[in-house]
Amino acid sequence: xxxxxxxxxxxxxxxxxxxxxxxxxxxxxxxxxxxxxxxxxxxxxxxxxxxxxxxxxxxxxxxxxxxxxxxxxxxxxxxxxxxxxxxxxxxxxxxxxxxxxxxxxxxxxxxxxxxxxxxxxxxxxxxxxxxxxxxxxxxxxxxxxxxxxxxxxxxxxxxxxxxxxxxxxxxxxxxxxxxxxxxxxxxxxxxxxxxxxxxxxxxxxxxxxxxxxxxxxxxxxxxxxxxxxxxxxxxxxxxxxxxxxxxxxxxxxxxxxxxxxxxxxxxxxxxxxxxxxxxxxxxxxxxxxxxxxxxxxxxxxxxxxxxxxxxxxxxxxxxxxxxxxxxxxxxxxxxxxxxxxxxxxxxxxxxxxxxxxxxxxxxxxxxxxxxxxxxxxxxxxxxxxxxxxxxxxxxxxxxxxxxxxxxxxxxxxxxxxxxxxxxxxxxx
Amino acid sequence: xxxxxxxxxxxxxxxxxxxxxxxxxxxxxxxxxxxxxxxxxxxxxxxxxxxxxxxxxxxxxxxxxxxxxxxxxxxxxxxxxxxxxxxxxxxxxxxxxxxxxxxxxxxxxxxxxxxxxxxxxxxxxxxxxxxxxxxxxxxxxxxxxxxxxxxxxxxxxxxxxxxxxxxxxxxxxxxxxxxxxxxxxxxxxxxxxxxxxxxxxxxxxxxxxxxxxxxxxxxxxxxxxxxxxxxxxxxxxxxxxxxxxxxxxxxxxxxxxxxxxx
Lengths: 428, 262
Known about the structure:
The structure holds 2 protein chains of 2 kinds. By secondary structure, chain A is α+β, with helices and mostly antiparallel strands. Among the domains of chain A are: 53-88, no CATH class; 95-165; 214-388, Phosphatidylethanolamine-binding Protein. Chain A is 38% helix and 18% strand. Chain A contains 13 helices and 11 strands. Chain A has helices spanning 3-28, 62-70, 79-87, 99-131, 140-163, 167-174, 183-195, 197-207, 210-213, 342-348, 356-363, 381-388, 414-417, and strands spanning 223-228, 231-233, 237-238, 249-253, 260-273, 278-292, 298-300, 309-311, 325-333, 366-375, 395-399. In chain A, the strands form 2 sheets. Chain A has a 6-stranded mixed β-sheet, covered by helices on one side. A 4-stranded antiparallel β-sheet of chain A has the order 2-1-4-7, with no helix packed on it. Chain A is extended. Chain B is an alpha+beta fold. Chain B contains 6 helices and 15 strands. In chain B, strands 3-5-8-7 form a 4-stranded antiparallel β-sheet, with no helix packed on it. Chain B has a 4-stranded mixed β-sheet with strand order 4-9-10-6, with no helix packed on it. Chain B starts with a strand and ends with a helix. Residues 167-172 and 175-188 of chain B have low confidence and may be disordered.
């Protein structure tokens, strides 16, 4: 051992002991409210058959996860996170003892206070402006309305700015515990959607030519997810006819506040018409006056009531040889207070030749969200068509022969020139 | 090519021969002359024009490649017809047209050729498209639906498709039909072959019909195959099995000799 190592030995020993002390301090667990989950004693109940309660934040093994999911609650975060929570001291996030972090928190809190004051001021200004007489305003009632709109927009902006820097809000949103009635969580959900999933939908719209064929223009503003029973459908995916035999389930997430009524329409835009040598469209499902809000996102299409349903679910089918059929599922927002009369619409609107453009124009609805799936002929299509009472399962589509412009080339060679009866003797 | 000047070294060599001629013989004089040539450095010179001037530095002009338009505007084309041959993209493929690897524009649908510009798609580019009606104008109006053709004939199938029979389950799942209609789970029933009774083929990913591996493992059980338990000291059963085996092998050998042997 070198001289410096000998000299450092007492210091090293001291450090080691202090480390042990620290560890034991952690074992003692100062400054915490909660206890380590692994140390908690299992409470024994009176009955011997105990149903253990699983914490969604602390389940680690796959068996525990499955048991938790059966109760309807989903585990939160990754398994590593849950294991860390289970084995750590669980100091509250805002109490983490790091100086820089706490200083940063103070700065953010000061900023939040500022924003809250600005919000209060803006609210006061809005109420004052509403109270003033339009005649006294330069520009009249119209300009008053313009000013009110812009002030309200600014107020919404301030509300977001007050909460956007809060790490706990970010954490709650990422855990899926965000309250969609609050603007900040809606804003975060919208941003997350726009980051990836919306781009996919926009790409599918362009790739599958939904926009020129079904609607003249469309910008998605709500997230629409499609599923058949338990099977989630990616936008543009080919779905087996037996799977799409049942009606779909939609999960629609809107990012602006308030409850509204929506119409759901499922349109097949590639119905082959042989006589006219073109494609027509057909409506596979139509229902109106369905309530939707940022918190109520589930729309099972089979659960539509009599006052909502216009056309029940018709299974998706594609005859053999026909090119793939695109089934677009549109969610259309009705104007506030507008209720569509389903009884008259049932008679007026026919399934065959359904035009989405005409429907949107006549009923004055705005498309907010869309999903799409495709279908081709497969083994189960014949059965699906038979059960749904649709004729045409025994029809096959074959490509039309293209007549060549050039006349067929005359046969060349000695054999061709001497093929007539004149040269019968020369033939083999 | 710079040719070496031979005159000065030659003159010098001849002068040296003249100087030394009274002393040496003719061969010696010649040798001396050649030695003088080798010793004297050669002078390289450029002339005004040279033979290679005509071919090397001239700009190349090969035979014409017959580029350009092969079909004019409003001419009828069928899928595959080449419309324009070009180097690079003077013209871009528009409606119902595609571009080959050497930027050749060809038609993908039967129709009439149209040459046009679409400022909304791209400010500077010019396009070649194919329309179905001679009087249709390209570019199409903004946000209008695509013009498509089915190009197919409906034919009745010779063998009508068999509709698979559904298996009715009492499980009413979410998403069942309107009016409480029971949802059916379709199970394909193939014609069961001998030795394959009781096979439960499920539709697996990739559209393959397959039974589970554990079911394959229990095939012998299902078929009711009887296997006699092995008894270690039963020499008579062992002898019987042995005799059967020997007879089979002998037959195989004799069969091989009959067919294979020449």
